[in-house]
Write a structure and sequence with these properties.
Lysozyme, single chain, three-stranded antiparallel sheet
């Protein structure tokens, strides 16, 4: 299924806010493009795993990238 433009836009917005889009960005225990907790990545910091884990995290916690973006805008984190 194609990803709606609004989803891609929200996902990219979060990536830019978190890491300027970098898969190699680190900040303490937060890793990569979406600044995921390193424990979520299980030692696999590949771009593919970051994407997979980010999808799981956002879907389980917020239901959508749009909802995650709205939370970020309200709280400064997600």
């Amino acid at each position: 299924a194609a990803t709606p433009a609004s989803t891609s836009s929200a996902k990219e917005w979060i990536a830019q806010k978190e890491s300027s889009g970098s898969y190699t960005a680190t900040n303490g225990r937060y890793i990569g493009r979406y600044q995921l907790d390193s424990s979520y990545l299980n030692g696999d910091y590949s771009a593919a795993n970051q994407e997979r884990v980010a999808e799981q995290y956002v879907t389980s916690r917020y239901g959508s990238w749009e909802a995650a973006k709205a939370f970020w805008e309200a709280n400064g984190w997600y």
